[in-house]
Amino acid sequence: MPDTIEAEVLEIDGSPPPPAPDSRESRRGWGSGMPWDGLRGKVVTLDRRWWPLWALLAVVAVALLLTVGVVVAVLVVLAKLIGGILRFLLGSPTRRTGASLSRRSF
What we know:
Keywords: Membrane, Transmembrane, Transmembrane helix. The chain has about 110 residues and is mostly helical. It has helices at about 25, 50-90.
């Protein structure tokens, strides 16, 4: 493994380097004092620059929902068609047994 060389940056293009992040803050996790604690109770709006992405994601979501709906509809139609064909081929009785459940005949 090659040896690492550490150096302190004094200046980049005429300006001082940004301050180094505090390692203690990055290890705190979900505790209090994090930046999102100040957002509680406030309305957060999305950045206007991202509207094309949200529009594209909405179109993709609608297309997926429509696709799933069409697939389910096709499966239901196929199941009814296959059930009708099997009922015809196997010769179901002319009177359905479930049809007389709502009508009482004594």
